[in-house]
Sequence to fold (414 residues):
Amino acid sequence: MDELKTRNRQTPYWKQIIYILTVGWIVIWIYRTVLTPIYPIISEYFGGATDAQLGHISSFYFLGYVCMQIPSGLLVDRLGKKQILIPGFLLFGLGALIVGLAQTIGIMFIGSILAGLGCGTYYGVAYSLTAEYVPVSKRSLSTAIVNSGTAIGSGLGLISSSYLVGTGIVPWQALIFATIVLILMAIVMFLRYIHLEKPKIASSVSKYSKEKKQVSIKALFKPRMISAYILYFSTLYTYYLIDTWLPNFLETEKGFSGTSVGLASSLVFFTAIPGALIFSRIADGIPMKKVQLIIILEILAASVLFLTVTTTNQTILVIGIMAYGFFGKLAVEPIIISWLGESAPRGSVATMYGVFNFFGMSASVIVPSLTGKISDITGSKLYAFYLAIAIIGFGTLLFYIINRMVDQKSKQIN
Fold:
């Protein structure tokens, strides 16, 4: 025990933060992905739920998540990170418990909303902690390491669900209850290792502070910020289409079955880890070229996704899934986050990330239900993937145009 305490004292706090936040994302993403490979089983359990209703399970979760982004960012900047994170994860656990006990799909929707509200506190806490404590030269790489929790959690959720539930070893509720245990363990870890901060709310609000607040709001919607919000929405639209519907798409339209569905789907997340680490390291080495690197990765991701969904060859499809993971959201997100953090308004870092994630995660509310609706109408989810590819292209184009205009204006002023 004494040796463990000595090691903790020797480990810099910013490194401890990286480990802790990675674990937090693992738990969140296990919950997010654990149901997606077994939609047919859940549909049967609830008496034949439609694709649109199954999509609502994720959409209601993400609705709660998105609604919490800006309020939690404001609260984190005023009350402190730990003060918001712990109640948030307790609410996450309560929502998961309701989902696990649900006897009707309507009750499952309510649990999903509560779980989303609880998880919605995490993003602002996570990236304001990295922005505050991680050295600038390590920030892109550190963010990529934190984001690797997303990939690990997603892979664990998909594989465990498709194997344990898909083969009938355990009922689907058992994995939800196992996730609740992980949530409680994460709360204990947060309580022990994240430092408690003093509230930042002043007893009175001066005229100066009111002006500062107005300036901060204006700073949140500078052209570069707006371009990042658009790009992030485009990136996450495709990512959450894959997260919520790829397993079902592979099973119903591409001939995959059983455990292979979870394994193939999880490749997106496992290949994302080396991609994120490699490109984040590159981004830290060329800080003035991050915008160009972001655009290249978005174009590559859209291209390989098109190849993936249009091919009839399963080998090429699997390679395409791996390539999307390598170039896609988890590879580009740390670079966007670190680039955005360099121009974040001082004293409003969590708020800025809350606004950023609000616009990006709005896609996650739309895509599960919309994809289910497209599937019900057309009989195929292929058209939903085409729509996602078009959205990536349009978002990347706007990101390029806005940043080019800002750069040209800066040159003219100088």
User: Anything to note?
Assistant: Residues 202-215 have pLDDT under 50 and may be disordered.
